[in-house]
Amino acid sequence: MDSIFDKLPWDGQRAKPPFWMSMPLDSLIVCFDPNTLLALELEFKRNSGLPLEFPLTVDPMCAYPLPEVGLLAGDEPLARKIINLEWFDHPVAWLRGDILKPHSFNSPAENDQERIEFDVEIALRIALQLEVSGFYQSKNGIWIPLSDRLGIDLADPFDVARIQAWQAGEPDSVFDSFDIGAEISDLLPIDEAIVATQDTIGYALLASGAIAAYRLAEDVERFIDEQNTSMLATQAISVVDLGWDFCHAFLTDSETDAWEAMNSALVLMTDGDALSTETALQFLNTALPILRRIAQDNDDMVDEAYHVIAEIRASIRDAQGVGEE
Questions:
Q1: pTM metric for this prediction
Q2: Contacts from 197-202 at CB under 8 Å and sequence distance 24+?
Q3: How many CB atoms lie within 10 A of CB 108?
Q4: pLDDT confidence of residue 321
Q5: DSSP result, 265-305
Q6: For the segment 57-110, what is each residue's pLDDT rounded down to a tens digit?
Q7: Is there a single domain that holds both residue 284 and residue 164?
Q8: CA–CA distance from 66 to each of 161, 205, 260, 273, 309 (Å)?
Q9: 40 and 95, same structural domain?
Q10: Which residues span the domain enclosing 268?
Q11: Backbone angles phi, psi at 69, to 5 degrees
Q12: In degrees rounded to 5, what are phi and psi of residue 62?
């Protein structure tokens, strides 16, 4: 059977250098390193010109930041907000609408009862769709620019002025209707992607959560030992945020209460407030035994889960041979 990649118009797509990443990813499917995911979020915002406080979906099921998914997903693409126009034609900038929203399906884990996707499932589904469609080339670690599809040349002053006018609110028949999600879903339909997601999500959550817990515990031990007072507040906030994002599914009731208390304390902080050294150390000492427990409790199962994800990643990279230089 022909590869779905044979349907993609690869010719002419290589003229523009790949969108720069300090850490090219060998796959979008599941992130095992919390610090990498955080770094890529900040890097995407810095490179595209989005404000640091701009809301994105940062979920370990997808190793790259996405527009907001789920019930908060909108029909306006990130491209409308991007300041650095070199990133205007990035595929993530043109994800909008249907591909980001939750879809109904019959859950095999719940006796085929109908429900809608959770946000974590949407993030994994989109990661699968972006790779299988070839818009992220995991084999080469690059994103495919969309300038040809948009019919623009970012070096052309006329096109730059057209983009700026659209970003300022002027209508544009191409930009207003352009939806890369529709093309992605033609290549890997949403219903098929949901089935693949359900087959994968259990392994993905186990592998990412357990490995992240182990790595975060190592970080916390180092932070406590070093006690760099100029960095402790930042380190503690990062551990609280990343630990929740990656590991909340593994928390016991009492651990959830402890972690939510830390989250609430951070939410209640106002602009200009600083986390004291004492509170930062308290947070780190609260997080450490929880992270250690998660890593230890799942040690026996994490190898199998990791290898399942690794095989899925490898099969997609092999299929992307058509994109080789």
A1: 0.86
A2: 197/117, 197/121, 197/124, 197/125, 197/128, 198/105, 198/107, 198/108, 198/109, 198/121, 200/29, 200/124, 200/128, 200/308, 200/309, 200/312, 201/61, 201/120, 201/121, 201/124, 202/305
A3: 11
A4: 53
A5: HHHTPPTT----HHHHHHHHHHHHHHHHHHHHHTHHHHHHH
A6: 999 999 999 999 999 898 999 999 999 999 999 999 999 999 999 999 999 888
A7: no
A8: 27, 18, 25, 29, 20
A9: yes
A10: 203-302
A11: -115, 170
A12: -125, 125
Q: 26 with 172, same domain?
A: yes
Q: Give the contacts of 296 (CB within 8 A, at least 6 positions apart).
A: none
DSSP code per residue over 113-150: EEEEPPHHHHHHHHHHHHHHTTSEETTTTEEPP-HHHH
The string of DSSP codes covering 257-274 is HHHHHHHHHHHTPPTT--
- Do residues 90 and 217 both lie within one domain? no
Gap between the Cα atoms of 39 and 293, Å rounded? 26
Q: Are residues 297 and 319 in the same domain?
A: no
